[in-house]
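Fill in residues.
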C-alpha cells in the first residue's frame, strides 16, 4: 500500500494517508524511551517509592511478587511540513503522476504519522503570490485541515520571492521542518529559504523529489521539452542527447546534495515512481534524534 500509483488511484487523500502510514508502521519497531506512557514495554521488580498505581496486581496474585509495569513514551516534536507548489511540480512521470501528486500523498502520510506520534504538525504551501500557512497543532481537527489544504493545492508560477517568504522565516520555534521540492530554482532561492529556516527552527529534512522519467531520461526520438515555469521550449533528439543529459544531471545532483549537507540539511533524493516508505523512515529517524 506504499505504491504511489495505487494510493493516488484511491482519489481519497485521508484514506490514502491512513493506508500509507499504517502500512508503513506495521512491523516497525520504533526507538522509544521507557516511562509512564500508553504502550506496555516490560515489567521490573517493585522498589520502595514506586507509584502503586503501576503495580500489576494480577501478576502479584499469581506469583506473590510485586512488579511495576513499564511503558514506552515519546517526547512530542513540532513538525512543519513545507510544500513547493511552483509550476515545475506539475511535471508528469510515465506512470501519469505529477510530482505534485506524489508530494501531496507523501505529506499527507507524514502528517498522519506525525499525529500518530503525538506531534504538533503544521503545513506551509509555497505559492508565488503568497503563503498558505496552517500553524502546527495536535488537536483532532488538524489532520482534516491539512488534508483539505493539500487536496486543494495547484502548482503554478515560480518559487516565491524573499519578501513573500519573510513571514515564514520570522517565526522562531524549534521544529523539524520537512521540505518536499524538486529544487528547480533560478538563484538559489530555495536553498536560501531553508538556510534561514534552519537558523529559526533548527532541523531541516530536505526531500528532493524527481520524476522517474527525468532521472532516467526514458524519452525516445525527437522530443519537445517545455520549461513549466518560463514557457521556454527546446526540441532535441532524446537518443542522441541521453548520455550528455545523464552526465549533467548526475553532476547537478552531486553538487546539490553536497551543498545541502554543507548547509546542515538532512538531504535525501526521492524518485516519484518508488514507494513512500523511504521518506517516512527518514522522518522517524530524524524525529527520534530530536526527541531523545
Amino acid at each position: 500500500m506504499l505504491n504511489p500509483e495505487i494510493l493516488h488511484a484511491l482519489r481519497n487523500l485521508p484514506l490514502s494517508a491512513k493506508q500509507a502510514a499504517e502500512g508503513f508502521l506495521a512491523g516497525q519497531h520504533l526507538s522509544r524511551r521507557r516511562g509512564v506512557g500508553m504502550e506496555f514495554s516490560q515489567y521490573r521488580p517493585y522498589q520502595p517509592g514506586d507509584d502503586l498505581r503501576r503495580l500489576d496486581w494480577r501478576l502479584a496474585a499469581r506469583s506473590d511478587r510485586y512488579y511495576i509495569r513499564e511503558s514506552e513514551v515519546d517526547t512530542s516534536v513540532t513538525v512543519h511540513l513545507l510544500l513547493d507548489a511552483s509550476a515545475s511540480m506539475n511535471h508528469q512521470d510515465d506512470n501519469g503522476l505529477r510530482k505534485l501528486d506524489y508530494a501531496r500523498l507523501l505529506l499527507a502520510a507524514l502528517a498522519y504519522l506525525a499525529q500518530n506520534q503525538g506531534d504538533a504538525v503544521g503545513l506551509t504551501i509555497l505559492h508565488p503570490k503568497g503563503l498558505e500557512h496552517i500553524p502546527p497543532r495536535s488537536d483532532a481537527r488538524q489532520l482534516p485541515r491539512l488534508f483539505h489544504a493539500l487536496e486543494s493545492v495547484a502548482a503554478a508560477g515560480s518559487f516565491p520571492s524573499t519578501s513573500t517568504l519573510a513571514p515564514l522565516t520570522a517565526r522562531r520555534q524549534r521544529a523539524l521542518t520537512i521540505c518536499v521540492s524538486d529544487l528547480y530554482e533560478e538563484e538559489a532561492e530555495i536553498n536560501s529559504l531553508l538556510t534561514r529556516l534552519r537558523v529559526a527552527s533548527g532541523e531541516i529534512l530536505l526531500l528532493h523529489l524527481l520524476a522517474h522519467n527525468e532521472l532516467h531520461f526514458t524519452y525516445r526520438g525527437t522530443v519537445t521539452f517545455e520549461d513549466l515555469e518560463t514557457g521556454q521550449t527546446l526540441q532535441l533528439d532524446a537518443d542522441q542527447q541521453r548520455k550528455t543529459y545523464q552526465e549533467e544531471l548526475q553532476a547537478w545532483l552531486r553538487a546539490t546534495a553536497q551543498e545541502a549537507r554543507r548547509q546542515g540539511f538532512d538531504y535525501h533524493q526521492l524518485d516519484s515512481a518508488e514507494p513512500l516508505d523511504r521518506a517516512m523512515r527518514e522522518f522517524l529517524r530524524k524525529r527520534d534524534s530530536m526527541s531523545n
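The radius of gyration is 22 Å.
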